[in-house]
Task: structure prediction
Amino acid sequence: MLLFDQLNKGDRALRTVAWVALGGLLLLGAQLWRLQIFSAAKYRQSQETQSFRTVRVPAMRGKILDRNGIELVGNAPRYQLDLYLDELRPQFETEYQHRKLQVLAAKRVAAGEPEPTGFFAQFLDKFRHKKRGVRLTRDEIGALERQVRYTVVSNTVAAVGQRMGMAIGLSEEALQHHYLQKRFLPLSIVTSCTPQQVAQITEQGWAIPGVALEQVAVRSYPHGPLAAHLVGNLKRNDIYDEDEGVFDYRLPDYVGGTGLEKSFDHELRGVAGAKSILVNSAGYRHRQAEEIITPAEPGQNLVTTIDLALQVAVEQALNGVKAGDERGAVVVMNPANGDVLAMASAPAFDPSEYVNGISTERYNSYFLAAPERRSVNRASIGEYSPGSTFKIINALALLENGLNPAEIYTVEAGPGGKGRYMLGRRPIGDTAPPGDYDFRRAFIRSSNSYFINYGLKLGWDRLMAMGHRFGLGEHAGIRIGEEAPGFFPTGDEARERGWSQGNLANVSIGQEITVTPLQMAVVLSAVANGGKVYWPRIVDRLESGDVLSNDKPVVVKPGQLRSQVNLQPRSWELVRAAMRDDVADDEGSGKASRLKNFAVCGKTGTAEIKGYGRKDKVTWFTSFAPYEAPRYVVIVMVESGGSGGGTCAPVAKKVYEFLRDREQGLTKGVAAR
Result:
């Protein structure tokens, strides 16, 4: 070689140059060896890290079923139109070059340079404009690229809208965010296609580059607003769980917001999977370059204790109170084990609205607006004064502490032909007329004077202790996400608050304390079954969402006893008989719930609400049936009702009619909405 020949010559200068050149070649060779051999694995790994994006894939959410396996909440396929930006790159480039020439021409005119004319002059100008100093700045290039992207994409979206006969909007900000953060994923331009649109797309085919019809699974509510407060709703989940690992991107996912969806969110959500997407240096995905790393595991199915047909009958009965203006709740419970058979709150809402997201304005003006407050589950979180329904507790406390049920108490006359009770100089009105009352007549006529008189003699401690034995003032313990404990102080707490005999008189007839309809269902179940206070059960079992799984269901044990209220059998029987007569006797306040061949036992109640410049009523009907062998407890509460007997008892009658007729084989149930 020429280089080595120079090393053997005697010319000192040439030899020096040769040695320097040889050293440079050796250094270059060493560097090439280091890069290609020694560091090859490092750079190969770096290339792979830069070329793949890991995406979190949410699992299919488990279903919510009624006690017979009928679907209350499920998943349904939804078709959407997606736009893949990588398919539009040729259009981006063409549009960019076209606009670039326009911008450069405008800049030359502004700089006072003549615009070339003629084809040959314009052709040569393409190679000369940089030398003349007319060029785009970095900011101008970025702005031009954004404009080009939006123009091409918006034109494509408009073409899609024209084909489908609908207006489709896309903001520049949304496109820019998608391009910068997740261009390797499709951009959804139509999130829900109708069956007619799907058929149109399938039949005609699509010649629009980058547009594809995709199928995704979304939460479905086959019965609309039925049992909406009970099953609850979903909300978007954008919170990162570090235990799941690190992902470059997460596909849209949801988390339980209220109801069973929230309480059993972990079981319903399943286990998310992961997939990798190969992208090029520009951040676009390679076609057909997706790989599932970890398959998602579907969530468990939740089997509730709810009876769908009964739930339908309950909501139809409740909605018939005041068409379009009903505000109330109904709870149906099995007194033998605490199973909740139906739970309704009105007015209801459509939980499917939450799937696509609800604006703040919509939520405040519709879901939270008073007095409807549609988002509130009145059955479990609504706290109301029980009114005269509390006389059941008062009666049990009185009988246990020596009340002679045959003893006569005379109610004095008040204004308007009604009775009254004088507490010092303060008159307390009575809904019952003046006259003589024993225990039975005072109960079925709901005499305030009778129960105030004996309640004052009973005192704070014994009266409040009886309520606490049934769990009043505490959470009932049902797992539906939202539940209130009500307000029910102990005797000591009442004295610490400085409550007087006037307060005790009010509490004796169900004022100044609060309960929930669910709590009253627990109380009435204990009255019906002889003192067993059960934890209410709403979930029967959890089953695997994988049809091929051999996992055994996780069963929630029924009939879990919370406490036992041990009273004299005579006390239970006197109260149950009085409740039966409250419906069966023509003097009874609950006679509007009377049924043939089905002995309903009930107690009405009406509580007044005062304060903040408003005056209103809360009306109740608490009941169980049949008298001989109680199988059902039905609690009805209606806000702004006329009276417990006039507003709530007819609702309970409709529910009991359905139950009676179904037991006798006279009905096959009511079709769900």
Residues 46-50, 669-673 have pLDDT under 50 and may be disordered. DSSP finds 22 helices and 24 strands in the chain.
